[in-house]
Design brief:
The complex is a heterodimer of chains A (323) and B (65). In chain A, the strands form four sheets. Chain A has a seven-stranded parallel β-sheet, with helices on both faces. A two-stranded parallel ribbon of chain A has the order 7-10. By secondary structure, chain A is of the alpha/beta class. Chain A has a domain at 2-179 and 218-241: Rossmann fold. Mean pLDDT of chain A is 94; it is low at 315-323. Helices cover 39% and strands 16% of the residues of chain A. Chain A is built from ten helices and 13 strands. By secondary structure, chain B is mainly β. Helix content of chain B is 9%, strand content 25%. In chain B, strands 1, 2, 3, 4 and 5 form a five-stranded antiparallel β-sheet that branches. Chain B is globular. The model of chain B has no long low-confidence stretch (mean pLDDT 78). Classes of the chains: A alpha/beta (323), B mainly beta (65). The interface between A and B is medium-sized, with 34 and 22 residues.
Chain lengths: 323, 65
Amino acid sequence: MNLVITGVAGFIGSHLAQRALEDGHEVTGIDCFTDYYPRLFKERNLSVIRTDPRFSLIEKDLLNLDLDTVFAGKDVIYHLAAQAGVRASWGEQFKIYTDYNVLGTQRVLESALRTGVGRVVYASSSSVYGDVTDFPMTEATAPRPVSPYGVTKLAGENLCVLYSTNFGLSTVSLRYFTVYGPRQRPDMAFHKFIKAILQNRHPEIYGNGEQTRDFTFVRDAVAATYTAGFARDVSGQVYNIGGGSRVSVNTVFDLLRKLLHRDIQPKRTDVQKGDVRHTAADTTRAARDLGYSPRMTLENGLAEEIEWIKDIYTVAAGGGNGC
Amino acid sequence: MAVDQKLLDILVCPICKGPLEMTAALDGLICRKDRLIFPIKDDIPVMLVDEAIPLETEPSETTDL
């Protein structure tokens, strides 16, 4: 099959591309390498697949690329490109979020419709839920995002449903719950925690650390995403993709200290605007329709991320200065 | 012995081809756009992307959970 992955150089996109290539598909990747975090990380994400003859990379942003030319003859579009970052989405930065997350998604859907693409899989987020009172969150829970980022991801998701119901375009949206693992973005909590502990610094924990998340290992999220491109009778649907357990930030931090054998204390700072208190996914629907079943334990998943972080910083620092 | 100034004048970032700045400690060349430091080892700038060091400034002041 011929697949397109937008945001291919990112955390989840690069893993998805690797999985698709391993399964024998042709992959066209799109990424504009925004400067939200250093390009070096994205280059490294792609290094495994860059030389694969069935992989091609288009370095352009979705707002300016002639998508019809790229999408023509393609079977599935995995639309993972987005401006990430919950807390960075307030203020002047918001335009970037509307441009990439809303307008970019609308352009993808319009072009997919024109070119007759078989399926668009959209990377949504648990951020669309906001602060709910009933757990676990089901897809029927009314979404009320508490961050501008969540608002834009929900807008993209709603556009996917609209194009499905109005024009028959086959779309599937996946609400990822805090994905972690190798290649995690450098602004994400686990990445920062692990790096800081390895460097004997004190990582910041917002609030009292008792906020909880349903942490999802990247290969589990990728398995669901990959399957969503081919599953039958799922058009217009939205699915929670969670890791299966709800864990506090303090618990994760203790686990990291144990895995790294270091007794570092965190710095406690104010709760951030846009940060939800708890998330927990009901994945019954994804299990039923996508065969989704998260396999990775938090401890083993964190161990994999630790090894990756040790490698990336030690190599970059030329042998030991980084961590 | 310091890195030759003429050499520094013609070196550019291997990724964006943009200008480079010397670090305060004179031990690397900084690309502000890509937020990378290319280390100088034995007076030789190592212009390999694989050996570049991410600038310590975080991409965002915030942490995403």
